[in-house]
Each structure stands twice: as C-alpha cells, then as structure tokens.
Amino acid sequence: MNKTKFLAMAMWIVLLMPLYKVKAQELSGDELKSMEKYQNAKGKNGIVVPALKLSKEQMKWWQDAKFGMFIHWGLYAIEGRGEWAMHNYKIPAKKYAKLADKFNPRFFDADTWAHVAKKAGMKYMVLTARHHDGFALWNSPSSYRNFSSYETAAKRDFIKEYTDACRKAGLGVGIYYSPMDWRFPGYFKPRELSENAALMKKQCYGQVEELMKNYGKIDILWYDGGWLAHRGSDADAAWFWEPDKLNKMVRKYQPNAVVSPRSGWEGDFQCNEGSKKISGSIIDTPWEKCLNLNQQSWGYSPKQNLMSLKEIIVMLVNTVDRGGNMLLNVGPDAQGVIPETHIARLKEVGNWLKKYGESIYDTRPGPFEPVNDRYGSVQKDDKIYVHLLDLKDTLQLPPLEKRIVSCKQMGGKPLKFTQDENGITIWLDKLRPDPAVSTLALETR
Q1: Of all helices (H) and strands (E), which one includes residue 227?
Q2: In the Cβ-directed half-sphere of 112, how many Cα atoms lie within 13 Å?
Q3: How far apart are CA 412 and CA 388, in angstroms?
Q4: Which of 17, 272, 340, 436 could serve as 313's disulfide partner, Cβ 3.0–4.6 Å?
Q5: Predicted TM-score of the model (pTM)
Q6: Is there a contact between 336 and 108 (Cβ–Cβ < 8 Å)?
Q7: Ordered DSSP codes for 244-284
Q8: What is the Cα–Cα distance from 49 to 139, expressed in whole angstroms?
Q9: Is the dihedral of CA 75, 78, 84, 86 positive or negative?
Q10: Cis omega before residue 367 (within 30°)?
Q11: Strand order across the 394-397 sheet
Q12: Could you tell me the domains of the chain?
C-alpha cells in the first residue's frame, strides 16, 4: 500500500472509531451493575444499536429453553487435535485445504444428532457452520476459493440437513459463524493488507446472508471470533466489520433470531465461555454459559476427559439459578459420529432432567440470591425451586413476603419447615440425597 492510501485509511479509522466505541454513559446504572457481576464475559462492550436488539417477549422462548447442544464439527475432526489445529500446529492453508479431499463423512446423520440432543433434555442446537479455518459446511457461493463441503469431496450441504433435522425434532435452530478466517493474511494485518482483509469481510457478509436467507427460520445466530489478529476484543474490531450494518442485514431475513455479541455489536445476550465455575449473584441481563462435555477440546479429540454427571448438573443449576442458559458442546468425529461415551453421559443428564426439569425449564432466577456452594433458587408461577449443593441438617433461607404452604423434595417426601419475619427454616433430615443435585419444591400463596 502506498503512503497516500495508508494515510487515507488511517484518517478513516480515526473518524469512525467514536461511532463504534461504547461509552460508560450509554449504559444505565442498572446495566453497568449487571455487567460488573457478569463473569468471564466474551463480547461485552460491543456497540449499542437499540433498533437491532430483541424485546423481552422475543427473547422469552430462549430464556425458557435453558439448555442447548453446541456442536463443533468440520475439517479439524480429521486431525483430531481440536478446532484450532490449523493455527496451533502451523499447517499452511494450502496443505490444510487438502483435508477437504478426505472429508466425506459416511455416517453423518443430523436426525441422530437431534435425537441425542432431545434425549439429553436440550431445547436447541448450535452447529459450527464455519469455524476459523474457513471451511463452510454448506453450499456457499460466497466462500473464498469454493472452500466448502458442497464443492469438495462430500458434495453435501450439511447445514440444510442439520436445519431440517432440528425443525423435525422440535429443536431451536442455531447456526455458529466465525467472521475471521485464518486463510487471509489480511486477518492478521488488516491495515497493512487492507485489500486482502476486504476480501475476508466480503466473504463474511456474503456467507452470513446465505445462512440467513436460504435455510428457513433461524432461531439463533452465534457469532464467534470477531476480534482481529487474535488481539483485543470483538468490540475493538467493530471499525472493520461494521456490525451494525452486518446485523441490519441479519434482521432483514431473520427479525427474531437471537444473536450473540461476538460480531462487535452487543448482541441479545452475553457469553461466559469455558469450564470456570459459576458463582456470585443473579445476573440481570440474558446470558449463556458455553463449555465442553469433553474438556480436551471443542473439536473432536480421541482423548477422553468427560465432565461427570454431577459436574454437568452443578454447572447447569448454578447457571440457571443466576438467570442464564447453558450450551454444552460435543465434537463429532470425522465420520460425523458423536462418541458413544458422550451419548451415554448426555442420556444421564436427560434422565436427571426427566425428574427435575420442572425446576429448570421456563423458570426465572430468585427469589433468593444464590449462596455459593450452598444453594440457589428459581421461580415459576406459585412455585419456588431450591437447588441444594451442600446438604446439612437444616436450610436457612431469607424472609419471603409470600406464604409457603408446602415444602417437599422433588420426587420425595414433604419436609418440615417454619416461616416468620426472620426467615425460613427447612429440616432436611428426611431428604434422600440425589447423587447429582437434590431439589426442593416450595408452594406459595
């Protein structure tokens, strides 16, 4: 790039940056307080575009659903070294692209995936339509150098098969899309290699339009990786992606899609990524915990390091008790098969939810603030559900304006309790502990 072009671009960036920077005064006091409580947030501080944000009514189905399946699947499943294999092991783009000649999953069956999710008690799914390696799992005319499953060995549009299967199973349809693409040197040097970076941006807009336009109703658009050169945040890269423009296009085709914050726009919910423990008080904004069932990697790995049933349920109740959803990831192998060990563990989760799902789905957090490692609560109609994380002889709860008329263990016997202006005492001597998490149901008037 010559000096004149560089100076012109620099001036353009300087002029645009104020438009894409979120200032503290743009957020209300309650919103700031809520975000201060939010732990490990990804994508926060994105640009504020109120016209793009869904209403509480539009978000209701998602907040009722509580539990979904994340699926990381693509060429990296052949390597079996995680979804960052291309970058972490410095595989040249041309060499990595040859994996597409081998990617022809004979046993891929989206209906089977959906069946596994349903059995696990999940209400929606989110599939990586395209990860950071740039390989698209659909018929994508916008794909740079036709790098897609439709144009290579498989000759299949997996997104079409997947979205059809989700709807058939009654599951919310979620699509993950990564704007970044390691094949473009301009990703790592967007200012120095602006023309190449512009090609990447063009691909992003074209592919997002394809996904939003060609596959019927999309319930969730899950962006990931908007940040540039693996530095800074998604919001820092808003000058490049222009997420207000990008997501206005999304709303044109999918006015009710729940959108994640990782395009540089604040999105409809916040993300908490990874296995870090959830603690603290109730979070006042919609949010989601996403993590791996196999803690080895997001993409397929033959190494097994599965979360235990108890670890999964504890994470789920800690999330729901603080107002969040949980998105639990599986990584199918190169043939499109979710490992049997993963299916077995997910079935155990589904069995727990058959017993206690009433205390998860369609609930809202409270009325009691969670006490770390002790208990948390949710409410629905005239019921309060208390998830017990540590069993002692008695449980002390704060005062409650409503009158409690009954207290029992879900799936068990009534429990003795007292209630006065000082609080609530529940005796747990007759409680039969659940191996994962025991739950109380309090009926109020």
Answers
A1: none
A2: 11
A3: 14
A4: 436
A5: 0.91
A6: yes
A7: HHHHHHHHHH-TT-EE-STTSB--SSEEEESSPPP-SS--S
A8: 31
A9: negative
A10: yes
A11: 394-397, 423-427, 417-420
A12: 3-359 (3.20.20.80), 366-444 (2.60.40.1180)
**How many alpha carbons fall within 13 Å on the CB side of residue 47?**
25
In angstroms and rounded to an integer, the radius of gyration of the C-alpha atoms of the chain is 23
Contact between 243 and 85 under an 8 Å Cβ cutoff? The reply is no
Q: Which two tokens stand for residue 139?
A: 């018929």
H-helix segments, 177-231: 185-188, 194-213
Query: How many residues are recorded in the chain?
Result: 445
CA distances from 248 to 52, 129, 287 (A): 7, 20, 22
Residue 87 three-state SS: helix
- Taking 3-state DSSP, the helix, strand and coil percentages for the chain, each rounded to the nearest 5, stand at 35, 20, 45
Q: What are the DSSP calls for 14-75, one per residue?
A: HHHGGGGPPPGGGS-HHHHHHHHH--SEESTTPBP-GGGSPPHHHHHHHHHH-EEEEE--ST
Q: Give the residue carrying structure tokens 């005319």.
A: 141
Question: Which of 240, 195, 200, 205 has the alpha carbon at shortest distance from 20?
Answer: 240
Please give the average pLDDT of every successive group of 10 residues along the chain, which has 445 residues. Answer: 44 37 35 42 84 98 98 98 97 98 98 98 98 98 98 98 98 98 98 98 98 98 96 95 98 98 96 96 97 97 97 98 98 98 98 98 98 98 97 96 97 96 97 96 97
Q: What does the alpha-carbon distance between residue 259 and residue 176 come to, in Å, rounded to a whole number?
A: 10
Residue 306 confidence (pLDDT): 98
Beta bridge partners of 128: 176
CA dist 397 and 395 (Å) reads 6
**Locus of tokens 């808003």:** 238
The strand pairing partners of 388, in sequence order, are: 375, 438
Burial class of 2 by CB neighbour count within 10 A (0 to 12, 13 to 18, 19+): exposed
Q: Measuring CA to CA, which residue among 289, 291, 110, 286 is closest to residue 215?
A: 110
Residue 100 three-state SS:
helix
